[in-house]
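<instruction>
Derive structure tokens from the sequence
<data>
Labelled lines for chain and fold:
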Amino acid sequence: MSERGFGSCARYIQRRGEIGRLGPHLAALGPSALVVIDPFIDSAYGALIDASLAEAGVKVQKIVFGGECWTGEVQRITSAAAGMLPASVVGIGGGKTLDTAKLVAQETGGRIVCVATVASTDAPTSGLAMRYHQDGSTDRPIFLPRNPDLVIVDPDVVVKAPVRFLIAGIGDALSTWIEARSNRDSRSKNYVGGGHGMPIAGMAIARACHEVLMRDAQGAVAAARLGVVTPAVENIIEANTLLSGLGFENCGCSAAHGIHNGLSILPGSHGKLHGEKVAFGTLCVLVLEDRPQSELDEIFGFCEALGLPTTLEAVGLGDASPEDLRRGAEAALVPGEATHATHAELTPETVLAAILAVDAMGRARLG
């Protein structure tokens, strides 16, 4: 495309011990902050965070996140902060906490700070928030007028979280290059502003994300199981958070996320993490686009080595009826869904066939 656009967060800081150094970061953005925090993180790190903010002279209102990024939760937090007009709105926690903080910042006008305590999604850096319904099913993405002003990740905190979150982040990041390639081949617009052609920088970042995953994922997961930080862990945290975040926003998503969204209408999938379902959807993209068997074998093997889903049973849908799966395939193709950026013939039949084919291959390999 002759025109192109690039978007990113203003600043990304990944450093051990940074959870205890939030005060100076927030003070530089203004005198007050509305903090939206996961309850577990508040219990584990709240005192450390409070002390850092108090020492920096930041006036803080803290609200514990209710667990789901939906309209009611955004309204609850916005109402609780009425009259404060915080200089910044700070999300501290997982992807849904951060996305909720982004939406609250949009309502209050505060600057956006994302403090990621897990490396389970690429949500922290993006100017997009995924909104859900109260029951956990996907509502729709909300495109924001700007990206976060600051993203902070503390590897010491990330490795203390259940390793399942890190693996799910790898599953989400696994889609980055494969979906970027879909968008390149279909000449689709990215997610910057109203949508632009993808820049060379975006494609380079998406490819780098994939290379880091292939090289370092297994070593990082092994270290994270022990709760230790190694260079591989540091690299995977950056790949899951920064590289994947910049890659998907500047290149776009395709059927990996579209099929995730479609299958998420089925209650059986609600117990699975975003990146786990995206990993299954990534395999579906390879089938839809008729990629070489060697690539399918590589990605199947990668997922199997990490315990990422390769079957419908692994995404909670082993007992789903053919009718339910067809509803999921149809939901993946609603107007505006990311699936339409996939460089393939797209009908409910072809999407359903890809889902069933991946499931059959996955079961055969495991059997």
The mean pLDDT is 96. The chain is about 50% helix and 10% strand.
